[in-house]
Every structure is written in structure tokens, then in C-alpha cells.
Amino acid sequence: QEIVSGESEEESNGVNLMEFSDEILLHILSYIPCTDLVLNVRRTCRKLATLCLDKSLTHTVLLQKDYKVNKDKVKQLMRDIGKEIYQLNMAGCYWLPSSTIDHVTRCKNLVKLNLSGCHVTSLRLSKMLSTLQHLRSLAIDVNPGFDASQLSTECKATLSRVSELKQTLYTPSYGVVPCCTSLEKLLLYFEILDRSREGFMLSGQLMVGESNVPHYQNLRVFYARLAPGYVNQEVVRLYLAVLSDRTPENLHAFLISAPGSFAETGATKNLLDSMARNVRLDALQLPKAWINGSGLLQHLKFNNPFYFSFSRCTLSGGHLIQRVINGGKDLKSLTSLNLSGCVHCLAPESLFRKAEDDIDSGILESLVASCCNLRHLNLSAAHHHSSESIGNHLCQLLSRLKHLLSLALPVCSITDVAANVEKPSTASNLVPQTFGRKVRIGIQTYPRNLADQANRKIESSVFWALMGSLRFLETLEIIGSSFSSAMPRNEPAIRNSLPPCVRAQSVGDSEVAAISQLTYLQSLTLAQLPNILTGSGLINIGLQCQHLRTLSLANLGMMGKVVYMSALMDMLKHCKCLRDLRLEQPYFCAGAQFFQALSHCSSLQRLCIVSRSGTLQSDAVMSFMANSLEVIMCHMFMGESLTVCKNLQQSIVRSFQADRPALNVVIFPLLHEDLTEVIRDVPMRHLDEITLFKSRVAEEPPNLWW
């Protein structure tokens, strides 16, 4: 009866979805996951049955974040449209059993295949690749036990035609690289731990022989990202050894992302010298030790560069302008620039300069003028203090970059200099930003309405003006220059945090309210904003930024109390599109009221809470998980006992795993000595995207992989 009444209402209004043109319907259907299209929607009527199998919808199948897909759905999907699929992305489908990969053999016409994060053995990989003769792009993981000798002749023939390879290494190995003799793009992710689960030290030595030598003669893009650890450094040096013997003539992108110290050797120096002589680059990223104190940048030649990363280098602004930007020449081709942790990049020289000294606005002005088409800019993890010169504030200069889509700034860089100088010391500024005894202070009442905020003259601030000028910004990170997460990668949890920069002491609710001007904002990170008193600005963001999908808040306001809890709960009630939420705050109480507010986020998929001395209510967590059907990841690292954490984790898994195949639950004491062992079992997709805190703006070149 409801269907009949609905149809009659449509007829009376003269609107029928099926009367739309095929082009419009295809556009609408493109927003529906392929599994739903093929297995459900196409069974509704004859017209949709035809449209759902249109080549525009079946050519590329994306399963990488379809958390509801299971083995049976994949099997049926491949059976129905396998021959029509040319690009298949199953990255991060960690919950699918390895036998699921067997069904990919039905996709005879595959050109691109992404299996990163999937369980694939050497034998299964061999069987699958033997049937994919048209494959040109491949992404896989290399896990302990991988044996290249198990790859068949047919498999190696397929690999010999592959031109793009992304390989994530969890064990010292060349993987399938030696079989890929036509490589043009090679992406390597080194995730090898220094110790095995049994506690044995691992070695980075590989078997060296004729069959193990990589073939780089056609290489155009070389990218390597290293997780912390000396084994990763040992293994990447073996991959680089072949490059140092003969640098590919067509190499135009050379990128190595390495945390900590990665010393330069004779072989790497020869490689860089050869690159300086023989190639012209469009993208560059090197370990800081390879750039610091060397004249390398002066000799490297660039063509039409689109990406530079000098993260954590001691490169001065003078060298940046002279050697990279060629004295301010046109660099309109540059779309992504990462200067994170580059503490002297906006100063003329670094020899006698303190990190907290004012920046040289002339250098930033030259940078902005030369790179006017920047879309991604990262200036975080440094003290970029503007002088009192009128019109030369960092925010005022950055407002000229009208094409920015993502931006990362230190907290101290957005403060209004004049206001900071004139403002007398208040009780809130004198509160120590450390753990310990709570200090009672008078709290200024902040208006909760956006119009009232404007009346308090925040519209005249330089940061408010910056946010107003970057209307199309999608990603924003405001991170304290001395902030460090309580959860580093392969180390115990950090127990103490450094105090915020003095210039950052005035940054608080009004600056957060200014962010609400970003109508198209999709991802927001706020860390170590010391002057958050009520969090009222968060409510404005919840109301105005309706496209927000990712929210990360860390160490806001006083450290001894979560002063913004009420505002956060009000904000969450408006975040209908929010998918990922990460909260890192000491003494956070994950109770019934919080989870009730969080239940309004109907699209939420992943939740991560990191809180020293934090508490949780098990019943509230269980109720939240029962009501929030889309949540497939729940990570909570709190101050509760191991028993409480284990019992809650087991209860969640036991109650919801059957209906949510991708469910990943980790609830564990933050300061427990076995935290690193627990972290190593977290799927890389979640660990890299949300659980571990880091700046993600311009972390990699845009469109590095599809």
C-alpha cells in the first residue's frame, strides 16, 4: 500500500525518477557502492538492471572502504561482472580471508589491481597473476613467509609487463620487484619491525644474486616511505644500491620519507651526484641528513616541479629562495609543498637564529608570489612568528594563495601580533600546561552564537581574514609547534608533554570559531590550543561545516580537565557526515552523555580515543556500538585496568563481529608496557589514517597512487 501511495503521489506531482535521462541516472548511480548496484539495485526494475551494468559503473570497482562487503559478496560480484572490470581496488580489506583472492581470476581484463592490506600468499599470488595477462599496475603486501621461488613462469611473465608497482614490506625482501622488468613507477613502504614477536633481532640483509637484482632502467618515479627502525633503513639501501650504479635517464620523481636519522653513505652520495648530472626532476623528497649542510640543492636540476618536501630539514629561507625557487622565478607548476619541521625555512639564514625568532616576511612573500598555484602547504612543527609590521603577517600573506585545498600551520603562527602584545597576562595564561593538581581559575563566558562572536571583533583578526579568503579549503591542521602525541609509533607512551609556545597562549575559542567559515571543510585537526576555555567555537564548526568527515582534537585547553566537553557534545549533534573521530586528551571521560551525543553522528565509522588517566563506562560503550551500526573501528587507550579493557573488548567483538565483518576493536591501557605489541596487530589502514597522530598535509605527492 505504501508503494502504491508513493507512486500515485509521484504521478500527481509529475515527478518520476525513472523518467530522468540515462546520463542523470548514471551520475546518481555512481555514488552507490558497486556491490549494492550489482547485487541489489539492478534487481529492482528492467531499466536499472541495464544501467547498473553500464561500463561507466563496472569499469572501476572500489571496495577499499566498503566495510560491509564479505567473501560471498565478492564471489558473486566477480561472477556477475568480472569480465567487465578493468580496475579493482581492494586496498585495506583486511577482514576478507585469503581465499577471496581466488575469485579475482575471473577478472581477465584487469589492468589495475590494488591488494594492499589483503592476505595474499606467494602461491595464491602466483595463481592469480598467471591469469591476468593485461595487468599493468599492481599493489601488494610482502609478509613473512613470502617466497619468490613459488611464482610460476606465467606469473613472472605477467609481472614482466607491470609498469606500476606498490609494495608494502613487512619482512626483509625484494618481493616481486626483480620480476618487474618494465617498471616505470615504484612505490615502496617499509613496515619491517626490528624485533620478531618472539623478541629476536631481525636482519636487513637480503639474498643477492642475478635473479634478485631490480630492474630500474625505465623508472620514472621512485618513492620509499620508511617506518621507524634500523632494519627498514638497511633494506632500503639495498634497493637504492642498483640505482646508484646507473641512474635511469627518465627519472623525474625521487622521494624518500625517513623518520629520525638516516645517514648518507658513499653509495647514496654517488646516486645523488649522478642525479644532479643526468636527470631533471619534477618531485623531490630526501632524508634531512642528505640535505643538511650540503650543496645538493644547488646542483639538482628541475623541470616543472609539482611537489617538494623538505620536512625536518635545517634548510634556511635564503637557501630555499635561491636554490629551489631560483631567486623567486615562476614556479606555477608547484602544487604541493611540505616544510613541516623546517624551523628556519622562513628566515634568511639559520646560523645565529633561534627557532622562536620572527620570520622574514619577504621570504614568505617571494614564496607565495612564485608558487601562486599551491594547493597543499604544510608549515607545521615550527615556530613561525610574525613581526609587528603592518600587512606582513603570515596569515595575510597566505591569504593570497586562492587555490589552497589543504593547509597545516603551527598554533603560534595564527596569533594576532598586536593583540598578543597588548593583552595583559591573565589567570588562564598562567595556568601550567602540565599534569598534576587542578588549578581553579575564573572562566570567561564566551558567547555560543556566531553573530555574538563576530561582535567581539574577532572578524578583524588576521586568522579570521585568512579563513574567509580560503573558502574552498578542504583540510586544515592547526598543531602546536611543541605538540607530541602520547602514542608514538614503536615506543612506550609518552608520559610528559612540552609546554606550548608563548605566542600560542592567546589562541583559543575565537580562533576556532573563525574556522566555521570554511563551508567545504572535510578534515580538521586541532592540537595544543592552550586558551580553549569553553570550546564554543566547535559548535560553530558543527553548524557551518556540514561536509566535515574527519575530526581530530588533541590537548585543548587546560591539561587537567576537559573544559570543552559540553561544547564538543553540542557540536557532534550536527556532524551528520562525520566518519572518523580521534580524541586525545588527558582525563577524558567516555561516559553515557558523550556516547549519546556521538550517536547523532550517523555516518561515523571509526573512533579513536587516547587519554592518560581517562575513564570509560563499559555499558555506555556497548550501547553506543549497538546503536551506531556503521562503526567498524573502536580504539580506546585509556587509564582503565587491563581487566576492564579486555572484558570490554571481548564483549564488543562477541556481540557485533558477526554482523560487521570489518570490525576492529582495540581497548588497552595507554601506559601498559605491552602497548607496542598491541599496536603492531592493528590493520595498517587504521593505524596510518587515524590511530597514530601525524600531520598529513602534503605528506605525499598528490595522486601518487590511484
Automatic annotation (TrEMBL):
One of its GO terms (cellular component) is SCF ubiquitin ligase complex. It comes from the Eukaryota. InterPro entries: F-box-like_dom_sf, F-box_dom, FBXL18_F-box, FBXL18_LRR, LRR_dom_sf. Residues 14-61 form the F-box domain. Pfam families: F-box-like, LRR_FBXL18. SUPFAM superfamilies: F-box domain, RNI-like. One of its GO terms (biological process) is SCF-dependent proteasomal ubiquitin-dependent protein catabolic process. This is FXL18 protein. It comes from Ciconia maguari. The gene is Fbxl18.
